[in-house]
Write a sequence for this structure.
């Protein structure tokens, strides 16, 4: 019946509960991941998206900033614990224009996670065969160095790392 099965599985549960915590199994590193800085959303109509977050949802929304080096206009929506970055194409070679051609209504483009040492992160990630989409960090929307990791190496997610 049920009692022998419960008695058999109980030691397994105790073993799992008393095992080392997950963080103790992570090898020490010269750099550390920090907090989620933002989730970036590509939008076909920047003014309409700004208005939705500001006027409908009541969020604090930044002014539009052009980042020609990245081929985007950006707007940040403050959420308290993180931000949303609204992205709109700037120029014909904008990666956001390509994204919007495939996703006409827009969608999540990337996530941005802070790191305490972007150069050490780049060195270690290259050793681990994670492709970085630029040879050197570029200055991002917050005026800090950023890199992007290839989505095929990150389970389908474009990951931006930003120097904290």
């Amino acid at each position: 019946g049920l009692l022998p099965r419960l008695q058999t599985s109980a030691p397994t549960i105790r073993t799992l509960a008393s095992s080392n915590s997950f963080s103790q199994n992570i090898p020490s590193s010269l750099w550390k991941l920090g907090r989620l800085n933002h989730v970036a959303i590509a939008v076909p109509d920047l003014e309409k998206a700004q208005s939705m977050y500001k006027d409908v949802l009541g969020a604090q929304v930044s002014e539009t900033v052009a980042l020609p080096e990245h081929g985007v206009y950006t707007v940040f929506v403050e959420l308290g614990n993180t931000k949303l970055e609204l992205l709109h194409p700037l120029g014909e070679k904008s990666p956001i224009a390509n994204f919007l051609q495939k996703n006409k209504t827009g969608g999540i483009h990337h996530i941005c996670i802070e790191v305490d040492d972007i150069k050490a992160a780049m060195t270690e990630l290259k050793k681990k065969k994670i492709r970085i989409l630029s040879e050197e960090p570029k200055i991002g929307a917050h005026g800090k160095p950023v890199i992007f990791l290839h989505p095929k190496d990150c389970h389908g997610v474009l990951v931006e790392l930003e120097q904290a």
